Each structure stands twice: as structure tokens, then as C-alpha cells.
């Protein structure tokens, strides 16, 4: 696997892309944001860490301009942006029947959407605990530590899985091959489906939300619904363990002082990934004849917030 593309080179795409590039791999960033692409072309990607700020030269292009094919395509747009651009890059021959397509996005159902474009055996799924932020066009902030788990979407072993994990480890990204990636995806999606919409609707940090007496009255039934829907799809989650993980995020010394990403997206006028979290859980619930009133309500409310904060402002 020689040539890697990062499809969607925002905060996380720049983290993964810059670290792979610094490990000596041939990486091309792909993004539609003209100012960002222009800034990276002119000045390189500015990387700020806890201890250092430096610039790296890294090829960057827009989907329209791509004129080569890749062995590995790591998808890191927001969930709602991925299908269209992956299809476009497939139609242009940048993704071929040899390309391993690795989704590292949050949310559920990415394998199903990608399998409309490339066969299942080309799709790999990852969950990452790394974080990243953008400080403006061409400037990424990389703090903290994290990890990545990955597996081929159809669960089959494939030498490419080991190879991708090796490349990510060469890039100090702390990767391992999972033997149950769907459990990890659903676990992270549960945390995101609880803290993201609730902190957004309440307009609270995670710690502030936890101090509301109603918090556990919302969190417990929400997690119960998600566990039931996951079970209907053959994914077995531990309800108590998930509630504990959510509560572990509450203290100020943990993630308590942060607003979740959905809050940041919404209050910065960007659409959220709600349809790939609670919205997707509601859809799966419908398919399995399971009522999901908590997930339905949160999805509805976040869409109302999007209407007020984005559509009415434009
Ligand atoms: P981001 O908004 O910073 O980056 C997404 C990038 O995709 C943007 O630069 C945007 O211009 C680009 N884009 C949009 N449409 C495109 C298109 N059609 N073609 C090419 N590029 C396009 O978002 P992010 O925070 O990097 O998140 C990406 C994914 O990673 C999300 O699923 C998110 O939930 C997940 N994630 C983020 C973090 C984090 O700390 N930022 C951590 C874990 C997981």
C-alpha cells in the first residue's frame, strides 16, 4: 500500500494525514474547503501540539482536481458528506477495485452506505479515540493521546488489515486490529448519542449537564433503547458498562469541562451528525419493530435546533 488519500481533511483528517506523512508515507489530503486547501498549498499544514508548532509540506487537492488512484482511502468527512464524495472519487477512478476504503468517522451505518459504492471486502471500519481541532484554514491543533481499532467490515481476516494497522502504528497512532469492530462502533456511538444531543439541547458542558437532577432519568432509558436496538442487530452491549463510561466522562478532570462536538457544530452554524447517531438508531429500531421514543425525540429536537441556528440565520 503505497498511496494514501485522506478524504475530508479537516481536524481529524489532518491529524491522521500529517502523522502518516511524517512517518514517511505518501499521503494526499483531499478537501472541498478552498481556503484550507489554498493555505496548505501556500504555507504547508501548520501543526500545533502541546509542546511545539511546526509546518509540514503535504500534497493537498480538491475532489474535482484528483487525477490519480490510491491504495488506501481514509474517509474523514463528517458522516453526511461521505457518500457523495466517495462515489465521486470512485467514478473518477481515484478509488479502484484495489483501494481499501477505511471509514474512521463517528456514527453508525457507514459500511452499509459505502457498500452501495464499493464491495464489502474493500471496506474497513475504524473507531478512534484520538481528537483534533482546527484553528483556521491550514492550521490543526493536535493534543492528547488516543488509539484506533480497525477491522474489515465483513469481519474477514485480510492481510491488508494488519498492514493498515502497521502503517498507523508507524505514525504513532496506537492502532490495533479488532475482533469485534461493531461492538466498539456501537459503544462509541452510544456515548455520542447520549452526551452530544443532551449537552447540545441543554446548552451545557458535560459536567454541567451531569449536575442536572434529570440527567440520569434521561441517560438510563436512552442507553437501554440503544442496547436493545444493538441486540436486534447482533451487537451485544453491556448497559451498565456503558452508563459507567458515560458517568466517567462527567468529572471536570475527565471530559467534564468540554462541550461535545455536536454542541460546537450547532453553535458554529454547522449541521450535526445526529442522523448517523440517534437518527440511525431510530431507523434500525423501526426495522426491528422496537420503539425508540428517546432517540426519536432527541433526533427531532436537534433537527429543530438546526433549523433555528442554521436555516433561520441564513
Ligand atoms: P471537520 O469538519 O473538521 O472535517 C471534515 C472535513 O471534510 C472539512 O474540512 C470539510 O471541508 C471536508 N469536506 C466536506 N465535504 C467534503 C467533500 N464533499 N469532499 C471532501 N471533503 C469534504 O470534522 P472532524 O472533526 O475532522 O470530523 C470528521 C469525522 O471524524 C466525523 O465523523 C467526526 O465525528 C469524527 N471524529 C472527530 C474527532 C475530533 O476530535 N475532531 C474525534 C473522533 C472522531
UniProtKB/TrEMBL annotation:
Pfam families documented for this protein: ApbA, ApbA_C
Domain (Ketopantoate reductase N-terminal): residue spans on this chain: 4-154
Keyword Glycoprotein found: no
EC number: 1.1.1.169
Keyword Signal: no
Broad class of enzyme this protein falls into: oxidoreductase
Annotated keywords: NADP, Oxidoreductase, Pantothenate biosynthesis
Gene3D superfamilies: N-(1-d-carboxylethyl)-l-norvaline Dehydrogenase, domain 2, NAD(P)-binding Rossmann-like Domain
Catalysed transformations (reactions): 6-phospho-D-gluconate + NADP(+) = D-ribulose 5-phosphate + CO2 + NADPH; (R)-pantoate + NADP(+) = 2-dehydropantoate + NADPH + H(+)
Family: Belongs to the ketopantoate reductase family.
Function (record text): Catalyzes the NADPH-dependent reduction of ketopantoate into pantoic acid.
Protein known as: 2-dehydropantoate 2-reductase
Organism: Staphylococcus felis
Amino acid at each position: 500500500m503505497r498511496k494514501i488519500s485522506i478524504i475530508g481533511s479537516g481536524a481529524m483528517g489532518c491529524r491522521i494525514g500529517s502523522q502518516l506523512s511524517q512517518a514517511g508515507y505518501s499521503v494526499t489530503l483531499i478537501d472541498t474547503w478552498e481556503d484550507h486547501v489554498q493555505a496548505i498549498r501556500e504555507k504547508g499544514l501548520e501543526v500545533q501540539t502541546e509542546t511545539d508548532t511546526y509546518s509540514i509540506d503535504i500534497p493537498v487537492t480538491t475532489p474535482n482536481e484528483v487525477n490519480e488512484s490510491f491504495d488506501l482511502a481514509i474517509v474523514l468527512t463528517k458522516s453526511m458528506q461521505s457518500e457523495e464524495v466517495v462515489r465521486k472519487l470512485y467514478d473518477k477512478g481515484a478509488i479502484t477495485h484495489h483501494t481499501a476504503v477505511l471509514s474512521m468517522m463517528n456514527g453508525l451505518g457507514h459500511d452499509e452506505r459505502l457498500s452501495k459504492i464499493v464491495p464489502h471486502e474493500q471496506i474497513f471500519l475504524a473507531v478512534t479515540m484520538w481528537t483534533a481541532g482546527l484553528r483556521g484554514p491550514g492550521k490543526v491543533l493536535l493534543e492528547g493521546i488516543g488509539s484506533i481499532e480497525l477491522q474489515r467490515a465483513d469481519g474477514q481476516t485480510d492481510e491488508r488489515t494488519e498492514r493498515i494497522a502497521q502503517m498507523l502504528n508507524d505514525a504513532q497512532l496506537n492502532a490495533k486490529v479488532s475482533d469485534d469492530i461493531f461492538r466498539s462502533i456501537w459503544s462509541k456511538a452510544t456515548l455520542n448519542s447520549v452526551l452530544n444531543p443532551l449537552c447540545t439541547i441543554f446548552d451545557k458542558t458535560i459536567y454541567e449537564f451531569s449536575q442536572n437532577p434529570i440527567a440520569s432519568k434521561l441517560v438510563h432509558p436512552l442507553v437501554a433503547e440503544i442496547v436493545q436496538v444493538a441486540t436486534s442487530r447482533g451487537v451485544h452491549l453491556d448497559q451498565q458498562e456503558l452508563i459507567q463510561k458515560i458517568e466517567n466522562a462527567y468529572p471536570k478532570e475527565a471530559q467534564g469541562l468540554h462541550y461535545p462536538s455536536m454542541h460546537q457544530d450547532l453553535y458554529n452554524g454547522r449541521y450535526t451528525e445526529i442522523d448517523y447517531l440517534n437518527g440511525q438508531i431510530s431507523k434500525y429500531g423501526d426495522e426491528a419493530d422496537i420503539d425508540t421514543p428517546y432517540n426519536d425525540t432527541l433526533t427531532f429536537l436537534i433537527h429543530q435546533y438546526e433549523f433555528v441556528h442554521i436555516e433561520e440565520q441564513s
